[in-house]
Design a protein that fits this description.
8 helices; 21% strand; alpha/beta; globular
């Protein structure tokens, strides 16, 4: 399903505070990007992902370096359109934006923010499931921020090939992922420091424990070397890390 938003604009964050896992006696199911999460997502991600604003800025800057006039820029896992709206002022106005997310509630939130933003750029929002396959054509840039980690490993190689084949020559993929480490000591330390980060941002131990349980079967991180190998085997000729904080990283790959 696709919906065209003829004139978009940027974001006002009137998001509510994330208290999805605050109730101690609430049962924990698998994490889902439903209406409850969509309503608080911007607050959730900004308090849960270290240097989220800087990651967005860096990814948008790099996307601006590769976005070619008249081509397409895809944001796969566009959530509430924060990245697309950040890109709007940094990319040539003739670049066509396509936002894809598998959660209708997130797409609806994205649509609301885009309408509020008041931009003249045409942005195409689509509900699409990576596990079922997506179409990518005439792309100079593909953004995939904190998305691949939610894709079952069985499908990741195929998705990377789809992105590679849909990119134009010298097109770029911007990938941001949560990581695991092969060394158990580093893995434990990085996770401990990450939970300290979440405590500093106001999350209780109960919220941290319940969200970890909810994500256990949903978010499957790769090691850094596994992500790099995935990109190289898809055909990308140049791959480089542009951001790293303990168990989070940003990677740019050029076709």
């Amino acid at each position: 399903m696709a919906s065209k938003v003829p004139h978009l604009q940027v974001h006002e964050n009137n998001n509510r505070r994330d208290e999805v896992f605050a109730a101690p006696d609430q049962p924990v199911g698998d994490f889902a990007f439903n209406a409850t999460v969509a309503a608080v997502f911007d607050d959730m991600v900004s308090r849960s992902v270290p240097y989220y604003g800087e990651i967005q800025r860096m990814a948008c800057e790099l996307a601006g370096d590769f976005a070619e006039p008249g081509s397409c820029l895809y944001d796969i896992g566009c959530s509430t359109a924060t990245t697309l709206l950040g890109l709007d002022t940094m990319v040539d106005p003739s670049v066509r934006f396509v936002g894809i997310d598998n959660a209708p509630d997130m797409i609806e939130k994205a649509r609301e923010k885009i309408v509020e933003a008041n931009t003249n750029r045409s942005i195409d929002l689509r509900v699409g499931d990576l596990h079922q396959g997506i179409d990518i054509h005439d792309a100079s840039v593909v953004m995939m921020l904190l998305t691949l980690q939610f894709v079952r490993p069985l499908h990741r190689e195929r998705i990377m090939r789809t992105i590679y084949n849909g990119l134009n020559e010298r097109g770029a993929l911007l990938l941001v992922e949560k990581l695991t480490s092969e060394d158990s000591t580093f893995n434990r330390l990085f996770i401990e420091h990450y939970y300290d980060y979440k405590r500093r941002n106001g999350y209780s131990d109960i919220e941290i424990a319940k969200k970890r349980e909810a994500l256990e079967n949903v978010l499957i991180p790769y090691r850094l070397d596994e992500n790099l190998q995935l990109l190289k085997e898809a055909g990308f000729r140049s791959v480089e890390v542009f951001f790293r904080w303990y168990n989070f990283c940003g990677i740019i790959a050029i076709k």
